[in-house]
Amino acid sequence: MATYVLVHGGGHGGWCYQPVARLLRAAGHEVYTPTMTGLAERLHLLGPHVDLDLHIQDIAAVLHYEDLREVILVGHSYGGMVITGAADRAADRVGRLVYLDAATPVNGQSLHDVAGPVIDAARPFGQVVDGIELVLTPAPGAGAFYGVSDPDVLAWMDARLTAHPWKCFEQPLELTNEDALWAIPQYHIVCTSTLATRAPDLIEKARSEGRLWDVDTGHDLMITEPRAVADALLEVAAS
Predict the structure, then answer these.
(1) How does DSSP classify residue 17?
(2) Cβ contacts of 196 within 8 Å, gap of 6 or more
(3) How far apart (Å, rounded) are the C-alpha atoms in residues 99 and 113?
(4) Which entry of 77, 110, 149, 239 is annotated as an active-site residue?
């Protein structure tokens, strides 16, 4: 039995992994889908203190308090920043890292450094609430921004998407245990449309080692293609 910790991206919550989690649990595996501070069901905890570092603490704390070992730690989108930081802090608890159409940062980079054009395009549509700059502000049909087109799924997402503090996207990642971090095997499940935007050396290395899957769908591939994502994650566990 494998243990998965599935980390969501910006504006989402653990809810977005429901379809994938059901499939992994049906295959006999243990699955955790934590929601980071200030988002989804933890929206009431939003405040000026919410940043990338706090979200890294959120996930590192799950690994510690649940006493998890050899975890397959999965991060979607902004979650790639978070799992990299969490694995740096708890390398002894992480067996594999999986980047799910995610940011793949190095020390000192922010999400803005990694994916500036995409998040810059979203920033003008944000708002300031109680002194906190929020982006990815939800609106009817906002799931289309993440590549979702099914009307029923869009309605499901409308009831769950939340705005995300901009501070999380501009704070640089601070790594302190890089030798142990980068010794953890890395896997990449990406959207076919984003392959060309990714570092060629990273992609070719992952492909040559059998650690790359590409899925022809929108950015929220855990929602639009849960079976393909679950199947890839099961292969990761079997590798």
Answers:
(1) G
(2) none
(3) 17
(4) 77
Torsional sign, CA 1, 67, 61, 14: positive
In angstroms, rounded to a whole number, what is the distance separating the alpha carbons of residues 117 and 151? 28
**Which residues in 37-67 are b (16+ Cβ under 10 Å) and which e?**
bbbbebeeebeeebbbbbbbbbbbebbeeee
One-letter amino acid of 221: L
**C-alpha closest to that of 191 among 203, 209, 201, 205:** 203
Q: What are phi and psi of 35, to 5 degrees?
A: -105, 135
Element (H, E) at 187: strand 186-191
pTM of the model: 0.96
For this structure, is 110 an active site residue? no
Q: Are 114 and 105 in contact (CB under 8 A)?
A: yes
- pLDDT (tens digit, 9 = 90+) per residue, 179-225? 999 999 999 999 998 888 888 888 889 999 999 999 999 999 999 99
Q: What is the pLDDT of residue 32?
A: 98
Q: What is the pLDDT of residue 105?
A: 96
Cα–Cα distance, 163 to 43 (Å, whole number): 9
CA pair distance 180, 178, nearest whole angstrom:
5
Q: What is the dihedral of CA 218, 42, 46, 7, to 10 degrees?
A: -40
In this structure, the strands spanning 164-165 and 132-135 are: antiparallel
- Spatial strand order in the sheet of 132-135: 127-129, 132-135, 164-165
Q: Measure the CA–CA gap between 12 and 222, rounded to whole angstroms.
A: 12
Q: Are 1 and 27 in contact (CB under 8 A)?
A: no
